[in-house]
Amino acid sequence: xxxxxxxxxxxLKYISLVTLAVQxxxxxxxxxxxxxxxxxxxxxxxxxxxxxxxxxxxxxxxxIAFVQIDPxxxxxxxxxxxxxxxxxxxxxxxxxxxSSDCWKLSIPAILYVIQxxxxxxxxxxxxxxxxxxxxxxxxLTTAAFSVLLLRKQLSASQWVALFFLxxxxxVVQIQTGAGDSARTASLLFQGASMNALKGFLAVVAACFTxxxxxxxxxMVLKNSQSDLWIRNVQLxxxxxxxxxxxxxxxxxxxxxxxxxxxQNFGAWAWATVAIQVLGGLLTAMVIKYSxxxxxxxxxxxxxxxxxxxxxxxxxxxxxxxxxxxxxxVLIATWLYNQPSRTQSSSRVGYSIL
Length: 353
Ligand code: C5P
Fold this sequence. Notes:
two-stranded antiparallel ribbon, 69% helix, disordered C terminus, transmembrane, sugar transport, transmembrane helix, transport
């Protein structure tokens, strides 16, 4: 059997899953805080944050790909900075990034840009914990697209789990819908008012792009020999143009595009972007070393974390329906991830790309 990629003996699969769970809760809370702690007029530009995210993630992926690439030279011992070898690395890197099938990444790239923008709408208009629980519906869309595109077969208990997931999310929504939707985040952060319906619609749309883009990326990655980091560079490169479009549409200020773009871009905005960059890199690793469905499990773990922090930080008022809905979501996620006795997770559908 091929060696399991690991760091100090711990498989990368588990390291990336656990780190993703922590990253997810951090992002939910910090993104929400970065949006609601100040009046909307002083808020930073979400499309700018999305663009910055892609630029940083692409650069980091490029650096990793550069270091990891095999320049086809025999004398590997300690000669990293040898100029001729660097040239070889660069040539090889260029060939791999501009491979004939690089266009495949344009589809998930566009979807992720839409999703990353929608995420800001959702985080601005929903309680951090409500957003987190509703966002679990992406397990549902991921499963649907896995069945459609990867022709993955789901067991009866997994279908039951998906049914309960939908119910659980619905129950959590009851309390949001019935409550005063424009309630401010807390007494401390009375800047922005929230619109629960707008936030919920954004979450639903983001769940669709998440499922489709994730499954598509998994399909591209596992159906070819190309390196994960090369694929990430291609993904970020194709994201740049769609990430620029909302900026060009929304920013018409006289003070110059670039200046207005990074207006109000303070520490919290940078923190949000940094955590999102980390999340993108982790997501890619999780899709490579496990799959999209295990990823759903990791993010549902993060519900519990954000839930507790939200109560402490945002004066989040816990209601019976919220607890009931969250418990249903967690049980459904657990049930979904129970290994099935009748089938293995086959990868028959990959050849359709
Ligand atoms: O919630 P979900 O798992 O769908 O979020 C995926 C996130 O990870 C998106 O923000 C997307 O931009 C990012 N991503 C990435 N590189 C990948 C796959 C996803 O940066 N290869």
